[in-house]
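In response to the reviewer comment on reproducibility (Comment 2.3), we provide here a single inverse folding case reported in full, input and output, so that an independent group could reproduce the run without further information from us. The structure tokens appear first.
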């Protein structure tokens, strides 16, 4: 009987320990919130048991409180004079009679208001004397002889910027796309910035590879720099950075397909999320059949899908006149009829396919719609392939340029760009992606990667030399670069990236261009998160300078406008440019 009761006690004790382990023990920071009141402690224990997600949020908040208290304690300790040197006093000043010193905690306040004015000081001395001297022999202050008050000790030579602990701004850099380089650039500003984890509540600057999870409502104007928040994305950047968004913005801006498809190659949009997708497919198949230069290459004459028809209305764009639209001569050839299928929101060349028949594109769309591998996509563009591009040594290439949008909605073009080349000889008869896609994410997996150029990349200077060697009469800096500036201005004016007038946003964009054999420049796409991998010696020189100069125009102006980082930050040297020069060229203001 005794053993049974003993077992019950042991089980009861174990159960109590389990409950206790699930209580405040796992949430050490919550003890700060319930020290004073046992009632609060019981409430928090109940929250931990019933609502663990809320408990985690409270724990993060308590972590911030703990951090704030620690900083305040450190600040008070310094103000108390324990960690700073004593005041500097000359020999003459030592000989002067002095009153008891004001405490170090009161000393900074003395600069704003002198609490020890001679009159106030005399009255305080009178009160002291009144307590110490016999009341019968006390003489009122008014009947006393006027006494000169000795001068106070000289004020502490107190340098607030040097002697007080500085409150730093917090930044978080997410993983991926060479985030370590971004951290390295920000660490050079360690006097004003400190890195914090994602779970830390008070973050002033967030740099991520995607805008998912960003609360744009926090981007509000504030006089206090410590209340400001900055993201590396704008809320409506997809208006130009998604493949469908860019096409729709330009079509709405011009309201004319001739002008739109003079900037980008002809595009058809398939959005299976809205109710108009059958009309879009019919529009494409009719155009495909009419403009096929090599006759009937496809057994099928239509695309057949049994997908769900949504009730959502599509984005209104003007495709009027598409039936009479004539493709530019460099987009076609006599031997092939090639098109590109691109998922709307994917990047780094994922999901991009070259096709020539309707059977191919139908099979590809179905595979992605129902989920090819781990991927699923319901929005695509079909774009005409440039079949007669300008080649370098018989290989295809494109041009990557960087564009910056600042918190003031100014946009800048970086003064240097680079050429991305294919490592395989160009051919229309082979649909191999290593021939047709020049993205570094694609080319680095090719067998001949880096065989001709370091990282399959060229500087603009070397690019011009190769053009001169193959007797192509084209001065890129004088003819091509002004065209790039014009196209960037058009895209920025075609839409509003900051419709809700958020404050303190910034974004880095990657613009991709191609040149055809008639030396016409084409915009291929705009990337929301351009690759920052230092995959060649050229990019090891350009990317750090590009990021550092970008932060000088954005981050530094918002949070530390009074600091000139250019004087003491390390210099990222770029050939043919001065160290003190900011390599971002302002082009204008966004619409």
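Designed residues, in position order:
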């Amino acid at each position: 009987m005794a053993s049974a009761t003993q077992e019950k006690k042991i089980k009861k004790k174990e159960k109590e320990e389990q409950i206790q382990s699930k209580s405040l023990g796992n949430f050490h920071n919550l003890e700060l919130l319930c020290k004073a009141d046992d009632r609060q402690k019981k409430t928090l224990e109940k929250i931990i048991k019933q609502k663990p997600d809320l408990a985690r949020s409270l724990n993060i908040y308590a972590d911030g409180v703990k951090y704030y208290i620690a900083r305040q304690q450190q600040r008070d300790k310094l103000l108390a004079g324990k960690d700073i040197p004593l005041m500097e006093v000359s020999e003459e000043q030592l000989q002067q009679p002095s009153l008891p010193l004001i405490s170090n905690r009161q000393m900074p306040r003395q600069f704003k208001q002198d609490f020890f004015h001679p009159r106030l000081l005399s009255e305080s001395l009178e009160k002291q004397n009144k307590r110490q001297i016999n009341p019968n022999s006390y003489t009122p202050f008014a009947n006393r002889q006027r006494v000169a008050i000795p001068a106070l000790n000289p004020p502490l030579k107190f340098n607030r910027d040097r002697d007080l602990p500085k409150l730093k701004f917090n930044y978080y850099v997410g993983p991926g796309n060479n985030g370590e380089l971004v951290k390295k650039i920000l660490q050079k500003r360690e006097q004003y910035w400190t890195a914090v984890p994602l779970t830390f509540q008070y973050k002033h600057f967030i740099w991520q590879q995607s805008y998912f999870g960003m609360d744009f409502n926090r981007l509000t104007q504030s006089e206090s720099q410590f209340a400001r928040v900055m993201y590396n994305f704008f809320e409506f950047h997809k208006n130009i950075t998604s493949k469908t968004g860019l096409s729709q913005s330009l079509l709405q801006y011009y309201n004319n397909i001739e002008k739109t498809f003079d900037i980008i190659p002809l595009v058809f949009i398939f959005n299976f999320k809205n109710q108009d997708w059958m009309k879009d497919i019919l529009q494409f198949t009719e155009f495909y059949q009419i403009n096929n230069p090599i006759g009937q290459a496809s057994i099928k004459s239509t695309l057949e899908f049994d997908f769900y028809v949504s009730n959502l209305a599509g984005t209104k764009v003007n495709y009027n006149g598409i039936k009479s639209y004539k493709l530019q001569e460099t987009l076609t050839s006599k031997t092939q009829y090639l098109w590109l299928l691109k998922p709307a929101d994917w990047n780094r060349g994922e999901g991009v396919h070259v096709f020539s028949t309707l059977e191919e594109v139908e099979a590809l769309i179905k595979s992605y719609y129902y989920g090819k591998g781990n991927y699923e996509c319901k929005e695509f563009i079909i774009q005409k392939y440039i079949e007669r591009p300008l080649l370098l040594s018989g290989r295809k290439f494109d041009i990557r340029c960087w564009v910056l949008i600042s918190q003031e909605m100014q946009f800048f073009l970086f003064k240097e760009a680079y050429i991305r080349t294919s490592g395989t000889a160009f051919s229309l008869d082979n649909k191999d992606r290593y021939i047709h896609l020049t993205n570094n994410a694609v080319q680095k997996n090719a067998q001949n990667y880096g065989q001709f150029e370091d990282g399959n990349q060229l500087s603009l200077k070397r690019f011009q030399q190769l053009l001169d060697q193959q007797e192509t009469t084209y001065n890129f800096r004088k003819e091509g670069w002004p065209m790039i500036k014009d196209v960037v201005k058009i895209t920025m004016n075609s839409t509003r990236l900051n419709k809700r007038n958020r404050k303190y946003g910034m974004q880095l964009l990657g613009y991709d261009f191609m040149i055809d054999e008639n030396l016409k420049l084409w915009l291929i796409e705009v990337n929301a998160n351009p690759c920052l991998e230092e995959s060649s010696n050229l990019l090891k020189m350009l990317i750090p300078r590009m990021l550092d100069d970008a932060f000088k125009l954005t981050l530094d102006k918002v949070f530390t406008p009074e600091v000139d980082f250019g004087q003491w930050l390390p210099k990222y040297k770029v050939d043919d440019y001065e160290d003190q020069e900011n390599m971002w060229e302002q082009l204008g203001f966004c619409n």
